[in-house]
Design a protein that fits this description.
This protein is α+β, with helices and mostly antiparallel strands. 56% of the residues lie in helices and 19% in strands.
Length: 418
């Protein structure tokens, strides 16, 4: 498609010349603009992908893929339902749970607590917890009557350790002639977990299911069944089979999944991700306009050269291809540099952030605000290819007008006064 002499002339035009300093400077700015736009777009999309996946894995790791809530919030004879649900294909685990709000106090400190009652063996099935025990052991959980597990960030903040006591206070207590008396009970810390999500590491408390039934006055009943599947995307195909089994044991209960429980949150993340892609694409678009201005100035400066080439027999289409090669090289080189540095930053974003924090002394990532203790980043090949393709297409389009103008140069008029 491109001949040898066209490449030769184009490469000569790309060389830095002292008498064309301004054009060269604008060309360098165009190249850097393309590189920065591609780099920022790749890094931003990777971080947002990681942010979504990390939150999704932690939300599902804590709450399962599906949740069955019986009528009135209580369910008895749940063992039969658990065994029946486990027999369904692609059902990994079924956990009977109780959840309630309380006020946790230790010394003079008090924090709101979300207390979850769960069987010790079932807690070991939650890999998000069992694989992230930082202090103590899950083997000790449930050995006593007053065991409890807390998050590491809470333990670090209030200097709590294994064996310390935590007092839980809930307004759902005993009814007396003087009114409802809050229920107060003390529990011993036997393990400390850390999953990397700030709210979970500071607000969640785990206690044995039997103790939770006693504390929240559930008797022999539970509040819900958490169902985990082999993959979160299997919700739709498994919904009917799971619902059929649950209806056999408790009429009128409702079955909800992680998409419904977190619909607004993950929809907001998806909208933000799409908007960020569009906004950051304008950085590339601005750089593309710089390519247009660079090529127009180059065509203006090379009018005499174009006229001489035309008198030597070079066709107008060949002239157009020469300037197309020049502009495309700027776009391709800028895209390659942006992709290279964007991937390096995306794969090492936390290391780079830690280095900047050590140098500046500033805290650039607050887990309390952003929910995650570290900056996540997941590079998706498809998205990188889309960014590269958008950059290249815009760069190629930007070179067409200046190249067409160069091809229309009249050699007679250009050499008339030479």
């Amino acid at each position: 498609m491109f001949r040898a002499h066209e490449w030769m002339v184009a490469m000569r035009y790309l060389k830095i010349r002292s008498n064309e300093g301004f054009v060269t400077l604008v060309a360098l700015f165009s190249l850097l603009g393309i590189a920065i736009g591609v780099m920022v777009l790749i890094v931003t999309m990777s971080v947002m992908n990681g942010f979504r996946e990390e939150l999704l894995s932690k939300v599902i790791g804590f709450n399962g893929h599906m949740l069955y809530q019986p009528v009135g919030g209580r369910m008895s004879h749940y063992d039969e339902a658990v065994e029946a649900l486990k027999k369904i294909d692609h059902v990994v685990s079924v956990l009977p749970i109780i959840e309630g709000n309380a006020l946790a106090t230790f010394g003079s400190n008090s924090v709101p607590a979300l207390v979850r009652g769960i069987r010790p063996d079932d807690l070991k099935l939650m890999s998000l917890i069992s694989n992230n025990i930082k202090l103590g052991s899950l083997d000790d959980f449930g050995q006593g009557d007053n065991d409890i597990i807390i998050g590491k960030r809470l333990a670090d903040k209030y200097d709590l350790s294994i064996g310390d006591l935590v007092t839980l206070v809930t307004p759902r207590g005993r009814i007396t002639p003087f009114g409802t008396m809050p229920r107060i009970a003390s529990y011993k810390i036997v393990s400390v977990f850390e999953v990397g999500e700030y709210n979970y590491d500071t607000s969640y408390f785990f206690m044995p299911l039997g103790e939770a039934q006693s504390y929240f006055q559930y008797g022999d009943e539970i509040a819900a069944l958490e169902i985990s599947l082999t993959h979160p995307d299997m919700i739709s195909e498994m919904y009917e089979a799971v619902e059929k089994v649950t209806q056999q044991f408790d009429l009128g209960g409702r079955l909800i999944d992680w998409r419904i429980l977190n619909k607004s949150f993950f929809n907001a993340l998806q909208v933000e991700r799409n908007v960020m892609f569009i906004i950051l694409s304008f950085i590339i678009l601005v750089a593309v306009f710089n390519i247009i201005s660079t090529m127009i100035m180059m065509v203006k400066n090379k009018t005499r050269d174009v006229a001489i080439l035309r008198t030597m027999g070079v066709t107008s289409s060949s002239i157009m291809r020469i300037f197309f090669i020049v502009g495309s090289c700027i776009g391709v080189l800028g895209t390659m540099l942006g992709t290279f540095f964007g991937l390096i930053i995306a794969f090492n974003v936390q290391v780079i952030l830690n280095f900047i924090e050590r140098i500046t002394g500033l805290s650039l990532w607050e887990g309390e605000v952003r929910f995650l203790s570290e900056v996540p980043a997941i590079v998706e090949t498809k998205e990188v290819l889309i960014v590269v393709l958008v950059s290249l297409v815009l760069s190629f389009i930007a070179t067409l007008l200046p190249a067409w103008r160069a091809a229309k140069v009249d050699p007679v008029q250009s050499l008339r006064y030479e």
